[in-house]
Write a structure and sequence with these properties.
By secondary structure, the chain is α+β, with helices and mostly antiparallel strands. It has one helix and seven strands. The strands form two sheets. It has a four-stranded antiparallel sheet with strand order 1-2-3-6. Strands 5-4-7 form a three-stranded antiparallel sheet, with no helix packed on it.
């Protein structure tokens, strides 16, 4: 009976820690919209897990890029009048999103 209570207490502590870690990360999710570089840029992030960059330009080739932590840089290059969308996922890293016009 004593080991059962200890196992239950350990499981409860682990669950509380996981909710604390993941719950606060989701609470600080960010998104935005800006008219920059002659185009429209939107982004969404969930710190440490998800980054999305979306850029639209009517007159020039353009790129949207995203990265989470030390993971791969995801880029999408598009011609004028086409949305460039980059989505990166990872675990426990800084989220980076950016755009570029050629």
């Amino acid at each position: 009976m004593g080991n059962k209570k200890l196992g239950l207490a350990s499981t409860l502590i682990i669950c509380i820690l996981l909710v604390g870690i993941f719950g606060t990360s989701v609470a600080f999710a960010a998104s935005g919209y800006e008219e920059v570089g002659g185009g429209i840029w939107t982004w969404n992030t969930i710190p440490g897990f998800y980054a999305k960059s979306n850029y639209f330009h009517r007159e020039a080739y353009h790129r949207a890029s995203a990265q989470v932590g030390a993971g791969d840089i995801i880029s999408d290059i598009q011609p004028p009048n086409v949305h460039a969308v980059a989505i990166a996922t990872g675990l426990f890293g800084t989220c980076r999103v950016w755009w570029y016009v050629y």
